[in-house]
Amino acid sequence: MPHADSSNFNAGQSKAEVYSQLLEQAEGLLTGQRNWPAQPFRQLSQPLLTLSSNLSNVASLLWHAYASLPAPSSAVNWAGFYIRDDKFPALALPVSSPPLPDTPGAGGVTISTTYSSPEDQVLLLGPFQGKPACQQIRFGKGVCGTAAANQETAVVPDVHAFPGHIACDADSRSEIVVPILVKGETVAIIDIDCTEAAGFDDEDKKYLEQLAVLLAESCDW
Q1: Which parts form a coiled-coil structure per UniProt (predicted)?
Q2: Most buried residue, 140, 167, 184, 204, by most Cβ within 10 Å?
């Protein structure tokens, strides 16, 4: 089946049927493709990254799946991912600074991404469908950062009532955020926004948590 056909969701299906199809199609697209991003490579001494193919494909599946459902699911206005910053290969690679001027024999300093505390961890914008979004969110901040820090799904019926909500899009009224956990750590989150209040329920939580497990197991984080 052509890759594009995997995003065809027939109208009139129940939410459970659409999510089941999404999981099946996601598993098919992820099979044999363990990269969340492709690993870095060097060309002409410059580090280059290819597109984060797995999460890009799944973001597309989510977008088309919600569009096929009746309201409030059809009112989803953002679907995508935020990834912990040290999981971006270029940021995770140790970087050596050049020697200081006028200091013969002094070596450079090697810098790598480490955290002295969980509060220092940062989520960076990953593949998504929707309007432009906030580029970085600190763990513990907003709905995304809170779900990442707590390692628990956050279902928020009214984002305006959520303490410390980060308003990337003023049209968003409700949100669900599901952490992707690997070896007991949050490596990324699934983030879905909706322009209607109470846009998500326990059924969304159930299937998106299954998707998070699939992504955790199918990608080399």
Answers
A1: none
A2: 204
